[in-house]
Amino acid sequence: MTSSPRIKPPEYADLMYISIETAIALASVIGNVLVVLVVCANRSLRNTTFCFIVSLAVADIAVGVLVIPLAIIISLGLNTQFYTCLSLSCLLLIITQSSILSLLAIAIDRYLRVKIPTRYSSIVTQNRAYVAVCLCWILSFLTGLVPMTGWNNINNIDTQRNLSISSDIVCRFTTVMRLDYMVYFNFFGWVVVPLSIMIALYAEIFRVIRQQLNRRAEATCDGDRYFQKELRLAKSLALVVFLFIVCWLPIHIMNCINFFCPKCEVPKPAVHVGIFMSHVNSALNPMVYAFRIKQFRVTLIQITRRCMLCKTTEPTQCPTSTRALSEKATVNL
User: Fold this and answer.
1) Most buried pick, 190, 306, 309, 328, via CB within 10 A?
2) How far apart are CA 74 and CA 60, in angstroms?
3) Where would one find the signal peptide in this protein (predicted)?
4) Superfamily of domain 12-332
5) What is the largest distance, in Å, between two alpha-carbon atoms of the chain?
6) What does the alpha-carbon distance between residue 285 and residue 218 come to, in Å, rounded to a whole number?
7) What does the alpha-carbon distance between residue 69 and residue 58 come to, in Å, rounded to a whole number?
């Protein structure tokens, strides 16, 4: 006979953890919902690159809506069945993997844009971008659900505690997930490899852009606006990748330490900091877009004014379209 999931009463440290995580979740959801609204409101942003950015924003919204609340529940010592805990843990992996693959899709898109600018629009169409987004999410589900097929800790738990599948356990990520899966498959296979490809792509993007700008400068040609715009956008998106690496590397390094050095004990505060950093990453991307991409910033300011500063005495200001504003800012992306 199984019991329903139970949670122990929160202590002071738990309340602090919940407060910080709740603040991160709110910032992540609000910021990334604004990203989606900005892309919907500004027609000039409805291109293939921002299609992938919206996919990344959806994953970050899921972090705030699903991942962080689940992390809070698990941290409080949820008592549940093994496969219930495992399915919740797999959900965290799916969303993380979708972020990585969305970043990779963005890097490939920008690489093609600077490498084959004349053929880019015929090769990278909007429909193909939608297909690529769907493939990213399908791959994320397939890789994230691998532990459900048997690569998990059920055998170790049965051996150590002599439990049946229907018995309750205290749900912890490390209790149900095998470290060899997290290190070899998840980290080395689906984090390090995609990030290495992204770094190589952005290095090539910057090389090509610099080369093109130098050639145009020598030829005294003023047609370098295109590559100047691409350079600014590439720097912004490369910053997003850099922040992802900085925020997610610590928790993966801790997993590697626990796996390769079982006797080494990672301090619990360090684990909490690593978890916080991985969640904070979801709230940082909208800030990068707002501060680094002028079109995005202009549209965001306009949406904020329309939603928060509209006055009934000045009805003409509310329905103002973003089209004229976006066209005016197109060159200044």
Assistant:
1) 190
2) 20
3) none
4) Rhodopsin 7-helix transmembrane proteins (1.20.1070.10)
5) 81
6) 36
7) 16
CB 59 within 8 A of CB 285: no
Handedness of CA 45, 47, 49, 54 (dihedral sign): positive
Compute the distance between CA of residue 264 and CA of residue 278 in angstroms, rounded to an integer.
Answer: 22
User: Could you list the pLDDT tens digit for every one of the 333 residues in the chain?
Assistant: 445 565 556 666 678 888 999 999 999 999 999 999 999 999 889 899 999 999 999 999 999 999 999 888 887 778 899 999 999 999 999 999 999 999 999 999 999 999 998 899 999 999 999 999 999 999 999 999 999 999 999 888 766 655 555 578 888 898 999 999 999 999 999 999 999 999 999 999 999 999 888 876 555 455 578 888 889 999 999 999 999 999 999 999 999 999 999 999 899 889 889 999 999 999 999 999 999 998 999 999 988 888 876 543 343 343 444 444 344 444 344
Would you kindly state where each structural domain of the chain is located, as residue ranges?
Answer: 12-332
The pTM (predicted TM-score) of the whole model is: 0.86
Length of the chain, in residues: 333
